[in-house]
Structure formats: structure tokens, C-alpha cells
């Protein structure tokens, strides 16, 4: 309830600060019998890791994960899985100048007002570094969902600042540092980022995420709708300011005669809904999009106040992502996976008895 | 956990179906000593009520609320407040033709697949009618927040189908059936709706909601961020497909040098963030927007299947809202109020000790 | 979290006060497809009902239950089941003399100190009358557990005041107003109660409850052990001051060589543990015992204070149970059923995959 | 919900196995501003530590705690506090003979049946070693409660096997390895334990715990009564089979005229209730007692089965506590502290507004 635990039945409790000794999480509720080792988790951490291209923060964190519990002879035992990631490249002096001021657009001010105290080193708890344990936990969820339901997750950047990135194919995503589903625009994106970095500024991004092979019937009818929990998960990612399911804000100008996805014995004929009807998964692809704001840690000076509420000017040096959206794709995939994992277990609890007389017709339209 | 309870400390447990004997909720966690009677709740229900103009469903439900518990001699006692609303105008025969088919865009199919059974009368549990208890519960939260923190909530429709509705002033909102903050466009909106109804079709809408007088420091740092919980609440409203906080999807094309709200001893100089930084309220206005899809209950025939997975065609008669967005404004206000109420209590639990050495500087830029 | 909800996956949210308009509960999480009507619930309420013999309170409450939601065409739909019981025989004037004083041994003082306000009519929220909705909810759980797992619950009084009641057979329990598993002692118990009532005093009782046909593997390993949750449930019943599982306090003087229940291919050879090892059910009978204090509502005058903290003397008239233990048996059965129901659903969520290579060997020793 | 988290607002999530690399916990919800370092926690771990006398297991674990997060410049920040304790003295070979058999009275069988898999090394997750993180977390709670409310906790052994240990004074407790509140009986207790160890057997114990300086008004009215949560906490300690509050099972034979604690302007005149009325703290001492069973890890051979359900005989060698009750006292204190801490925060959330017109009269009778 104090807000560092995600999920009800697949519970991930996150701890740590950006420049403390370690970050990590405890997963409580992972079903027993899943084959699991660090090798299942590390690749997802590596996708999210800083320092992998010149377009992201140059902080050098290997993000090596250690499983402390919950696995015996290579299999989960059903008891809590603790994951530990030691911080290794803290340079707290980089942040010296922000100890007594509040960076515009940052959580400095709100943490101070909420707690009366804040750990300013690298943003402390509000740092995007804390998404690493989430990604690690989600790697466990993803493995279980893939093995048991064939569910997979993939995301990509569809816009960088003003530049829309046309979708060409999922196969391009791993081949560029932007998670772009496009092969021909990479040079243009790199030039854009180089110019931005030179200007000491930052930009926003738009990320799309989909889940494929989603079980039908996930989500609760009233408050814990599947899309509600997805919105919660996505808006909880650092810097996210908007979330869309299916056609998203496009529905405002649509007609009901167009929007409602028709059914046929072969499956749904379209997927405007994005895979959720009445808060419950249809079995089609889950389609989610998020808007990520430009990071506030920029070199451009901005007006602010200090702890005595005196006017001051803040410039942020140190190592920062000029577009936090670049590393957001694996994080968004992770959040979506955690939501589905939790609801998959909830569904078993509630509806394990349900036996339907007819075959299902899920499936996304092409 | 099965999804009919909203909140952690101000818990609202909702029950009922559209055409069952009654709907209602139990509020657990309301602080003692709040003056409360049905007269505090009924006006909010009346704002949401069906049948108040020709542009919404003609179902005639007085939605009279009865307080069953938790109030003694006109004050809350700290124990659960049960609210009961009897259904009076069920016409289940209107729905006879959908018993064995699945309306495109509706929850019919997903409920059937999830539970193996569904109450088809008026959409059963998936009906927007179930927002009435939420609105009733939020009336209690709104009163407490207003009395204790001076917090108020107001929403308006900013777009109806293709028609943007320019914001003119909050004072116009109560004077038209659309919750439009605009006086001059009402005739145009009425014509639009009349044409839509005649065409047997439906349309989407965009709703804005703000909270004013928000306490600083609400929201948890990692997963239960204030904006995450707002997104959860808003996406959980029937037919919502998108949620924005502050500049929302507009941030994608913004620069950090523009986006980060500067601080001064007099307060923030802008509110791109929408009143939340790092998941914690800044004290500025909370700014939220939602996208509402066109309802799927339309007269236009659409392809579907029946329970034997045979192709069929569905036309929906009965009494429906051609734009569910019209009645969504008080619901969105209610959801925002419930989120703030819960976090206000959470804040007291965790941070009651916090004593800051300096005055606060909250406040929204004009 | 404010304490009126029982369970995680089979959630019962209770509302009402002894002398308010109604009491009831909302069950969220009942699996769909269970045949259910008021007739499944009423008999359990009737067993708990006041006014059934001269040895219990003479308040005349029919305790008629109405199902408001969650059932369609005689089957549960998987959505919340709201149960309503109207209060009909409130005589608030009976309590006039306690409005400004605090009855020794009662919750009057603590409610006042906690909430700054209390509903004094009939004990308000602290009345044992609020166990009625719990019993009603448990009737649903009992039906599901019986149909799906063959689990049944039975309790009996094993001591009334100083009088131990030797166990003779379960068949005697329904034949006397004390839930005694004994046929020959009933006259002696009646005389005991008559003398007590004449003396204006009250007495305690000891109740045993068992569950038979318990699924193996229920309970969580660390904090939410099955026996921990049983202790929580039992100690939460009004007037309970002690809980035992299996041999209970008898284990203090036992040896390990005696206590550890041996296993054989035919099953366990004894049941000192009471059906739980390491917090997880063994499949044997669950054996629970509780101690119930003498009610504090007695005619004998006792020293107390009033709201101005001035000394006073309190005598309680009105209609009270001289031994609340007499009606506690169905309540204890109900609580045990709610715990098992919740854990049965939790088990499905977590361990539905578990396939063991060998048959089980549960079963209680005779 | 999967059972490794204790508390709602002061949440302790426990992880680890007896012979894995580490054990620990994450505390989420500790208020900010509490001075905290490892030195506040280590002494409580040392009281619980194995190997401190010849009467407990000779496993040599220094139980050194490391704070990984949530503390900045010596003060809690309001964010999660992760505590890590490395295991150093695992001798898994000691347990070789139990890999395929089920020790009578142990959780071996139930873990296997629940999860289909178990970590047999040292009892894995079911080991009492997992109480160490609980004790560490409680040290934080105890410090906060002591500083803010003056609340303190103390426990003692009141019976060892058949030997009652008369209470003489709290000052004796730290001076003997049994936590006995008695100076003269220590030699007799040591002889008793020596004989027991020689016999290869084990015995039970009875422990008393009290909290002093308890805030008035803690506990929820219906299900989350303070005593219910205490019973849950205590019964969740390994090997506990019975819990009593106040006079406990003694109430069965009491009269109401005797039991109800009278009030006077100077305070309560007795404390039969044990500091709780109607589930809410009175401000008097909380009085709790627990029964601890004899450990099942004994050298005496007992009948059992193996994983193929074939009969076998089990003798347990290795390092075990012949009376787990000896080390249970600090654990019981810890559990009581965690319950009070959680309810203290809950109380702030709900009742921070309550202002009573008159002074309180709490206090225990001598």
C-alpha cells in the first residue's frame, strides 16, 4: 500500500535508490516449477541498460542480477524470488549542485514536500534506474506467460520528438538503438539526437507496445479492468504523460458504426478496441501506446527556487538521457507483462471452473 | 482483489447489475465526524442521471440513494457507509434479441468467455449504470476533501465527435446538457446529436477534468504514483480508451527546455506537468483528459456471431446513449475525487510527522 | 484495509449497525456457476438467530436475507453478491442509560476514544449482530467448498462456564439449544443457565470447530499460514480471547517424540497438529478451539465513568445473551469456512500447475 | 497476497531460505525522518541468534544485517528499507537423509503437496531462520513506536515443558538463556534441557509478551480487530499452536461480574481483557500468551513415508533447537511490535481528525 509493490497475486516489491548500494525486488507469488536462472533475466536487463549507445546516459552500470531466493535446483519453488542488482557507477558529486535546489520538471520539489527529506543522489528513488528491478521481475513473468500461454511482448518507438517513425516491421527493432520498427530512418534519428545533445536539450517520444497470444478473459469487470491496470502500469513509468488502448484518442472522432469490432466465426474483423472489451481481454493483440515527456535534466538554465524559497537558476550537468523515451521500450513491455501475469493468476483463482461449450475465436486482424 | 473495490484506505466496494433489484456500494474508511446525509449525495447522482435530456438514454431512473449504515445523528462514525439505489425502470425485454448474440464492441463476448455465464439484461454488470454508486461514494469523498483541504473538482466536454468545443468559462458548464464550458455552441451540439440519433449511430467525446486546491505531496514514489492511480481510475470508466495528464500526448513533440515548469517564490510559472512530478502532487491544479469511444449499442446492423459461433447480424434497439461521453463528466470528476481521497488518507498515515521548515509555494499558473 | 473486509480472493465486506436500518455484506470473488438462492443461506442464519430459546437474547429478528446482485437465473455470475438483512426489532430505548457511560468490558470506551463518536444503539457496530452477514457469506463459501471439495464444517460447545461437556457424537448437536455434542447433559446445562440468568450474571464457554474433507496444500508459507489466518478469523469473533489449533496449549508439556504425527501409506497416524504443518493444510481434519468470555452486558452493577470522566455505576438491562458462547458455534464454523474458501482460491491461482506423481495420503486418524 | 508480506501500511516483505545465499526483507511504509542505522537493528537480531547457548541450535550464524536502501544521511526517507542478511553456515549435507522422506510434524510433506517441489536444505522456506528478517524489521518498528508513543515490548518464558516458571521480575529476563523472568530456577531449567538433549527429544514452551505504553484506539472494529491481527501474527510464528489475549482460556470459567474491567477516573481497575475491548486498544498493557510445540527435528526414530509413499523411518540429525520456544521470545515481541506499528499508521490515516473533549484514562492496573 505504501506504493512500492506491483500486483496482487504476482507481487513485485521494489527497493533501492539510484546511488545507494543496491537496487532490487522481491517477487512473491511466482508459481512453482518454472525453470529459472539469472540467464533468463539478464538479457532483458541488458536491453534496458544505460551506456549502450551515445544517445543515452553514459553511466556505466553492468546491471548484473543475482537471484537470492526462491529457486532450487534450477526451478522456482513457489516462494519469494529476491533479485539483487548492485549499483557500481555512482558519481554522486555530479549532483552536488542540486542538493539545495529543485530542478524544474523533476521530482525534487515534490519529494521534499512529501517527505521533508530527499536523497538527492541521482534522483534517489525517483530515478528511472528503479525500472531495472521491474524489468528483471517482468522477465520472470514473460517466461511463464510464454511457456504457459504463448504470450509475447514487443514494443517500438513510433515517434521521436517531431519525427514520426513509420512502422515497417518488428524485425528491425533489435537492429538500432532506438527500438525503431524501421530500417531506413536510423541515420535521421541519430542526427536528430546528436543535434539535440549539442543543444543541451531533450525531447519526448511515443512508444507502442503490443502483447500477442493473450489469454481470453483476463481483467475484472468493474474497477480492476485489464485496461485500467494497464493504464496504471504505463502511467507509472517515469516521464509518461499519456496512455492509449487500441485507437486511443482517435476514438473521439469515430462513429460507433466504425469503431465496434465485428465478430465472425473466424475471429474478430478488426481491433479498434485494442484487445479489451468491458475491461476483459478478447484474445486479440493488446495494443497500447504511451507518451513520454522530454527529460528535465538538461544543461539549459531554468529558473527555480532553493530550499529557502529564494529564486535561483538551475543547470543540470552529469550523465542523463536526452530522450528517456529511447530506453522506455523494454520498460513498457515489462509493465505490460506484469499486468498480464497478475491477471492470469487472478483468472485461475476465480474462473478455473469455467468450461465453455464452444471453441474460442480469438485472434487479431492483420 | 476480484476487482469491485476501489481504493486502499477509502475503500469503495461496488455491487449490482443494470437490471437487477438494486445497485450500491459500501464505503469503508471514511473518517468519523463528517456531517453527512442523503442530501449531500443526491445532487451528484442527479448530474449523472439518465433521462435528463433528449441526448441521453430515456431510461427513467430516479436514482434515489439510501444510507444504510455508518452515520449516526447526522455524522459519519468511522464505520462502513452502505449506499443503496434501487433499480426501478428495468425493461429487460428490450434486450431479448441479444441474449444469444454478442454485440460488436460490447463486453458481451468477453463476459461470456471469462465467466461462462452472463447477465444480459441491460449489459448486466458491464453497464455504465454501475457508475452511479461510484458517483455516490465520490460525493462523500468530495465533501470531506472540500471541507478539510478546500479541494474541488470540475470537468467539461472539450470535444464531441469531430467538433472541438472551445473553453470559454467554467460558469457555462451547468447551463447545458453537454457539460460544455461554452455558451455559444450549444445549438450546434444539439443539431449534431439529433442528426446522429436519426442516423442510428453514435460518437465519441473528449472530457477534461481538473482538481483545484490539491494538497501537496499526495502519491507514492514508485508504483502507486498519483498519476498512475488517476490513469487507472479514468481508464476504468466505461468506454474510455485514452488518458492524459497535463500536456499528455503533446509532450512527444516538446523540448525539455519548454516542458519543465519553472519555479519561483510565487509559485510554479506553468503547469505542463498537470500537477504531478515524480508521481507526487505539486499543489497545482491536477489536469486530466480522457477519450471516450462511441457506444456500441447502435441501430446500425453489424456482423457478429451467436453462442454457437454461427454468423449473425446484430442491431441494438432499446434505450441507449448515442454519446456516452455526455454523461461521463460527473463520472470522471468522481473518479478523480476518489483517487485524491484515498491518497490524502495514505499521506496522513505515512507523513503525518513531516514538518517542513519553510512555507509552501503551490498554486497553478493562470 | 479499514477493517470491514474479510479475505483476499473471496472478499466479504460487511456493513451495518445493530440498530440501524439494515446490515449486510458484499461478497466479491465468488466463482461463477454456483447454483445459489436465498434458500441456501437462510438456514445458516436461522441457526445463529436470536430468540430461539430462553437461554439467548429475546430480541426477535427474523434475519431474512435478500440477494441483491451477482446471481442470474439461479447461478452466480462471478460478480459481487450483495446480501441485505433488514433490522426489524430495534428497541433503542433499552439502551438509553448507556449513552453517556461506558459499560465495563464493552467496546463503548474504545469506540469513543478511537472515533470520538459512537453509535450507542445496541452496541452499534461492535454488536455481535454483525456476525449475521458473516454467517450469510459463509453459507455461500460452504456450499462451494462442499460441492467442489466435499469440505464440511461442524462445531460444538465443549464447556459451559465450569461445566465440561463430554463429546458423545456429532448427531446430538442439532438437538439442543447449546450445540452440545452430548445428549444426557442438556438438563444440567439448562439449569445452569437458568441460575445464571436469575443471578443477573453471565458466563464463558469453549467451542470446538472442525473442518472435514479439507484440500491438501492450503495456506501460505510465511505470514499467511493457514493456521495464522484461522487464528485471525477466530479471534475476530466477538468475545473470543483464545484460539487453539490441534493440541493447542496442550503442546507446552508435550514431547516431540509424542507430538509429531507419524505418516504411513494409509495416512497420518494421529492429528496432534490439527491438520496444519508449516502453515499448510495436511488434508486431515482441521481442529480449532476457542475461548469465549462472559458477556459484559449484565444486570450486576459495576463501577465505571461517564463521558466527563466522573465515576458512575452501570447496570445493563435490555435483551442480552447471558452466554454469548451459545450462539457462537455457527459463527465459528462460518469463520473457518471463509478462511478455507479464500485459501482454496489462492491455491488455484498459485499452484494450479502442480501435478504430483503420486497419490495423496490425507485423512484424519479416528 | 501470496503470503510473504506482513502488514498493510508498514509492509514487511520477507524472502529467503534457510540454506540459500541470503535472507532478508523489504520494509515499505516506514515514515520518513526516523534516525536509523544497522546499530538499531543488530541487537534484536543478536537476541534471536542461534548458537548463543548450549540449549539452542549450534548453527553459527552471525546474522549481520545490511541496510540496502531507504536511509539517507542516517535518517529514513520514507522509501523502502531493504535489509539483507547473508547466510554463512549452511551445511546442507546434514540434511541429506531427509531429501526423499517427510519428517513427522514437519512441513516437508505439506510443502511437497502444495508446490510439487521443495527446498529441503534446512527446511528451506519453512525454517524458523526466516524469523530473522521479521525481527530485523520489527526493530525499526520498535524504534519508531518507542520514540513516538513510548511503546515498549517485553516477553518471557513462563513454562518450559512441564515446568512452570513463576514470574519474579522483568529484570531477570536478560540474565539467562531462557528469557525467564525468574532468577532462582535457571539451574533447574538447564538440567531439564540437558536431560532432554541427551534423550534426543524436544519439548514445548509457553511464552508471555506484553506491550506497554500502547496508544488508545488502535484496531479496526469488525474483521481487523487488534486482537485478531495479534492472533494472526502470533499463530504465524513457527511451531505456535495457541494464542491467548488477556485471561485467554481462563475466561471460559469466569463470570461476567468478575471479568468486565471496571473503569474509574484514575484508569481501569483490572486488565482481564488484556488491553483490548471490541478489537480496539484500551491503552492498558497488551497481554498475549502463546503455546509452542516441541520441535519435530529429533533423533528419536519415527515412522514416515518416502516420496513413493513407501513406509520408512526417519531420524533427524543435524543442528536443531530441542526447544524452539527458547528463542521464540524475541520473535513474539517482534510480531507484536509489527502489529502495533501497522495499526498506529492505520489509525493516523483514519482518525487523525479525532479530537476528544476530555482527557484519557488509560493505564494498566498493577
TrEMBL record, chains A, B, C, D:
Its cofactor is FMNH2. One of its GO terms (molecular function) is FMN binding. InterPro entries: Chorismate_synth, Chorismate_synth_AroC_sf, Chorismate_synthase_CS. It comes from the Bacteria. It catalyses: 5-O-(1-carboxyvinyl)-3-phosphoshikimate = chorismate + phosphate. Residues 41-60 are annotated as: Disordered. One of its GO terms (cellular component) is cytosol. Gene3D superfamilies: Chorismate synthase AroC (3.60.150.10). Reduced FMN (FMNH(2)). Its EC number is 4.2.3.5. Keywords: Amino-acid biosynthesis, Aromatic amino acid biosynthesis, FAD, Flavoprotein, FMN, Lyase, NADP. The keyword Thylakoid does not apply. One of its GO terms (biological process) is amino acid biosynthetic process. FMN binds at residues 125-127, 238-239, 278, 293-297, 319. Pathway: Metabolic intermediate biosynthesis; chorismate biosynthesis; chorismate from D-erythrose 4-phosphate and phosphoenolpyruvate: step 7/7. NADP(+) binds at residues 48, 54. Coiled coil: none annotated. Pfam families: Chorismate_synt. PROSITE patterns: CHORISMATE_SYNTHASE_1 (PS00787), CHORISMATE_SYNTHASE_2 (PS00788), CHORISMATE_SYNTHASE_3 (PS00789). Belongs to the chorismate synthase family. This reaction introduces a second double bond into the aromatic ring system. Homotetramer. This is Chorismate synthase.
Amino acid at each position: 500500500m505504501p506504493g512500492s509493490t506491483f500486483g496482487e497475486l504476482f507481487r513485485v516489491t521494489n527497493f533501492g535508490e539510484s546511488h545507494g548500494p543496491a537496487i532490487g525486488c522481491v517477487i512473491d507469488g511466482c508459481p512453482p516449477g518454472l525453470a529459472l536462472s539469472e540467464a533468463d533475466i539478464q538479457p532483458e536487463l541488458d536491453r534496458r541498460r544505460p551506456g549502450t549507445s551515445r544517445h543515452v546516459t553514459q553511466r556505466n552500470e553492468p546491471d548484473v542480477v543475482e537471484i537470492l531466493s526462491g529457486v532450487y535446483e534450477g526451478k522456482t519453488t513457489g516462494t519469494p524470488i529476491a533479485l539483487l542488482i548492485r549499483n557500481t557507477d555512482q558519481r554522486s558529486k555530479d549532483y552536488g549542485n542540486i542538493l539545495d535546489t529543485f530542478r524544474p520538471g523533476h521530482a525534487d520539489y515534490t519529494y521534499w514536500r512529501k517527505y521533508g527529506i530527499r536523497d538527492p543522489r541521482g534522483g534517489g528513488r525517483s530515478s528511472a534506474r528503479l525500472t531495472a528491478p521491474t524489468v528483471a521481475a517482468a522477465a520472470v513473468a514473460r517466461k511463464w506467460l510464454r511457456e504457459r500461454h504463448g504470450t509475447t511482448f514487443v514494443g517500438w518507438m513510433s515517434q521521436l520528438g517531431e519525427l514520426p517513425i513509420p512502422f515497417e516491421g518488428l524485425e528491425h527493432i533489435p537492429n538500432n538503438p532506438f527500438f525503431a520498427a524501421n530500417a531506413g530512418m536510423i541515420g535521421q534519428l541519430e542526427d536528430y539526437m546528436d543535434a539535440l545533445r549539442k543543444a543541451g536539450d531533450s525531447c519526448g517520444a511515443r512508444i507502442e507496445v503490443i502483447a500477442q497470444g493473450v489469454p481470453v478473459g483476463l481483467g475484472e469487470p468493474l474497477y480492476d479492468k485489464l485496461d485500467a491496470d494497464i493504464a496504471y502500469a504505463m502511467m507509472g513509468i517515469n516521464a509518461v504523460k499519456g496512455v492509449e488502448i487500441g485507437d486511443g484518442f482517435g476514438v473521439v472522432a469515430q462513429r460507433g458504426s466504425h469503431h465496434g469490432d465485428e465478430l465472425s466465426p473466424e475471429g474478430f474483423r478488426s481491433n479498434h478496441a485494442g484487445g479489451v472489451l468491458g475491461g476483459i481481454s478478447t484474445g486479440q493483440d493488446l495494443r497500447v501506446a504511451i507518451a513520454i515527456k522530454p527529460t528535465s535534466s538538461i544543461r539549459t538554465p531554468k529558473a527555480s527556487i532553493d530550499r529557502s524559497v529564494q529564486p535561483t537558476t538551475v543547470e543540470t550537468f552529469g550523465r542523463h538521457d536526452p530522450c528517456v523515451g529511447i530506453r522506455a521500450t523494454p520498460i513498457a513491455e515489462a509493465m505490460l507483462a506484469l499486468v498480464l501475469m497478475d491477471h492470469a493468476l487472478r483468472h485461475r483463482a476465480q474462473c478455473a471452473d469455467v468450461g465453455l461449450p464452444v471453441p474460442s475465436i480469438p485472434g487479431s486482424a492483420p
